Fold Two component transcriptional regulator, AraC family.
Amino acid sequence: MEERLKVLVAEDENILRKGLILTTDWKALGMVVIAEADNGIDAQELALKLEPDILVTDIAMPGKDGLELIGVLSDQLPDCECIIISGHAQFSYAQKALSHGVKGYILKPIDPKELAAVLTKAAKEIHSRKQEREKDLELEQLRALSEGFVPGKASLSKDYRDQYIQDAVAIIEQHYAEHLNVGDIAEHMGLSERTLSNLFKERTGYTFLEYLTLYRMRMATAMLQQKERQVGEVALMVGYKDYRYFCKIFKSCFGLTPLEFKKGGR
């Protein structure tokens, strides 16, 4: 289950703050309120300590107003999405808030549906950003691994003895253009997914997915050297329906886009 997003609520009006916290269905939104504050100074200290994903704040607060608070957090917690609730309808406030990257500006009295919509939008951006970072990290790891990768059995360790792994590698080499996952192959062999995964990593030095991806990339380089092959065609031939993702994976491994490689950048 996906971890719930952390929310900090800063509002100096006690009744409004408590009402907002108690009446909003945070669980349904995939969120949890981790702290609350009735002034900007405490809110800043809590935010820097707890690192919330979302800040919901009033503008007019003692000690430090909401815009000052957001200004500080935009520098020190750039991933924190900020939402303003305020009784101030002047455009200048909204304009300044937007300059700090605020994702929502809600006027009091708060409309629960409007608040939920703004929170949902912020959550989507947070999840999207996290997914992109996970992909970038995966691509960096693949690029590092690709530098020492040689497709085929020669890439296996000298201690390679296991028939199961030999069979798994053979399946990759024969069916790399198809949808493959370690679970299906393990089931075909009568093994648990965990057992095959551990054996594969132990014997080859790569996870199943890493090996499959790198093998596909190496096969792609061979195909791209054929003048009649187009990049989109090659992507499909090595198992990628998403052309953009294929290009991203390829560049992460070789430092060139498939088209640059094809044109002789290699």
